Structures are given as C-alpha cells and as structure tokens.
Amino acid sequence: LKCHYPKQYMAALMTSVLDSATKISSYIAECKEMGIPVLPPDVNHSDDHFTVEGDAIRFGLGAVKNVGRGLIRSMVAKREEGGPFRSLEDFLQRMGDELNKRAVECLIKAGAFDSLGAKRSQLLEIYAAVMDSIAVERRSNLEGQFDLFGSVEDSKYKEIPLPKKDEFSSRELMAMEKEVTGLYLSGHPMDDYRALSAKLGAAPIGAIM
C-alpha cells in the first residue's frame, strides 16, 4: 500500500492517530521525505480526517482541539449543500447554534480560515462580536416579537467590518498552530537551520527519542 498508494496510505495512517500530535508530526515529516505535501486545515476543503487532495494530503480538522467530529461533519454537509464558505461571517451564519466560541477561536488559530482572505489577527479580534450579533438576530427571529423598548432595527444583524491590523509574525502564527493542534503547520522554528543541521549530520530529536 505504501509503495503503490502512498498518499492514501499516509492519510489513513495519520487519521488513525488523530489524538497523538507526536505521531502525526512524525508522519508529516515522513510525508515530506516522500515528497507528499501536507496542506493546512481549511473550512472549505478539510474533512474530520486526513484526506487525499490531488497530489497532496489535506490536514484533518479532527486534529484541532475543541472541534468535535459532529461539528465537522455538519460543516462538511453545509458546504456540500450551499457551496464553499465565503467569509467568517458566512460560516458563522450558516453554522448557527452548532458553534461555540472556543471552537471558532481554535479554527482561526489553526489557520482554517486563511484561504478566505482575512488575517488571523483580524478574525480573532471580531469573531466573538460577530457571533454575539448573529445570536441576537436569531433569538429575535425565533421569538417573533420585541420587548417594549426594542425595535426591528435592534434585532437585525449588524455587519462588523474587519479592523485594520497587521498580521501576527510567522513565529506567533506557528505558536498558535502548536497551541491548538500540537503541531507547527505553516512552518517550523527550525526551518532556518535545517540545511546547517543536515550539513553537520545532527540527529533528529525523533530519532534520538
């Protein structure tokens, strides 16, 4: 299987150890040695497990902390039914009450919204306010009535623009990824030293362990 179906084999292998960041990390390193790219988690492409996507393997959202399998499967179903998510706002509107703030924060930190065009620094600043505004609108629609001092305008969803913010540094982004997946996804702190390490013949820590 590893010889004739390497991508499928490695994707299945990583899916079998979703709860072990250490094992996933070693398998991702093996994928690099085999010339198989591992694509980052993405709300428009990822499933709950690791999947084959073209000549690469797509990171499974099941490996992201605080994101349950039921939520991921619901997300995939909504994606297939209504098309790709267009923005964080669109994602939150369509997912509704199935989300909690901790799960959304972890998805942002893992980079699962990066392909939608906004910076993680921007999304982390507004996601809670967007969720609160959507919740107010949904609650008002369910009740079908307003209190004495309320109005239709008060109950409507108020769009929250993206703040003007610089993106986090690459080291900060990697630290976020490590926090929510146990892995560095967009790079590695050792990337700048790999060539020197190889030249010196330094043994990888995984081999030492």
Poorly predicted runs: none
Structural class: mainly alpha
Widest β-sheet, arrangement of strands: 1-3-2
According to DSSP, the number of beta strands is: 3
Biggest β-sheet description: 3 strands, mixed
Instruction: Measure the end-to-end span.
Output: 27 Å
From the alpha-carbon coordinates, what is the Rg to the nearest angstrom? 20 Å
Overall mean pLDDT: 90
* Order of SSEs: HHEEEHHHHHHHH
Count of DSSP-assigned helices:
10
Question: How much helicity do the residues have?
Answer: 40-55%
% residues in beta strands: under 5%
For this structure, the quaternary state is single chain
Shape: globular
Nutshell version of this structure?
The protein has 209 residues and is mostly helical. 51% of the residues lie in helices and 4% in strands.
Description:
This protein has 209 residues and is mainly alpha-helical. 51% of the residues lie in helices and 4% in strands. The protein contains 10 helices and 3 strands; from the N terminus they run H-H-E-E-E-H-H-H-H-H-H-H-H. The chain has helices at residues 6-15, 21-34, 69-82, 88-95, 101-110, 120-143, 152-155, 170-181, 194-200, 205-208, and strands at residues 38-39, 51-53, 56-58. Strands 1-3-2 form a 3-stranded mixed beta sheet. A hairpin with a 2-residue loop joins strand 2 (51-53) and strand 3. Helix 1 runs antiparallel to helix 2, helix 4 (88-95) packs parallel to helix 6 (120-143) and helix 5 runs antiparallel to helix 6. The radius of gyration is 20 Å and the shape is globular. 23% of the residues are buried.
